[in-house]
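Please review this one:
***
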Amino acid sequence: MSEPGAPAAGDKAPRLQDRVLRGLRWGRLQEPLGFIKVLEWLFAIFAFGSCGSFSGETGATVQCSSEWVTPVNIQFGYPFRLYQIPFGMPECTADSEARTLYLIGDFSAPAEFFVTLGVFSFLYSMAALVLYLRFHSLYTENTKLPFTDFCVTVCFAFFWLVAAAAWGKGLSDVKAATRPSTLIAAMAVCQAEGVSCSAGTTPAMGLANISVLFGFLNFLLWAGNCWFVLRETPWLRPPAPRDSAAEQGAIDKQ
């Protein structure tokens, strides 16, 4: 039995949680250094979420006769290895053989780099927020932490510019490879006499376009944040004010 007045074991976890929450300085979020980190955290989620969760559909219709219409529908999405996505070419004559064709192109490299960068940005922003809010005194007293933060911020800004530009180019190639006209050109049956092919489902690329937009927004955020992080480094940080009592003691000794 526990002694009267002794804290219960179940109370330790809430007390530890209250102690941690009391140590957080939420006012830091009103400063540019903390506020921009929150935006970077959110925009990183939007960037890798909109790209990694994208899926689209394209298609065409093949009319072999006046009454026989065969639809061709193809699903594709992240990581955009289109050469691995098969679709069947319809038969239009008795002696023709059904063939399995594939989409053209592999655009997984820029897409996966974009998503990976977004995940790392999300993790670093969250860790930096914990450092700003809970251990800000350590951040200001240790000159190595602001300098490291500045170097990492510059690297993320550069990588976001590269990733957004590469994924923007990759997305334009994905659009070209998944157009219904591209499918029609790839199917030999559409070149046969008496066969009519027309465009089917046109892929909706709005979510993918949004991911590219958030990629460039992340670049602007990280590039702009370089200035505010630089101000925390010893290069631009104003010297700490001297203790007036210590100055007075030095004068008395003289």
Residues 243-254 have pLDDT under 50 and may be disordered. Strands lie at 55-63, 69-77, 86-89, 99-102, 196-199. The longest strand covers residues 55-63.
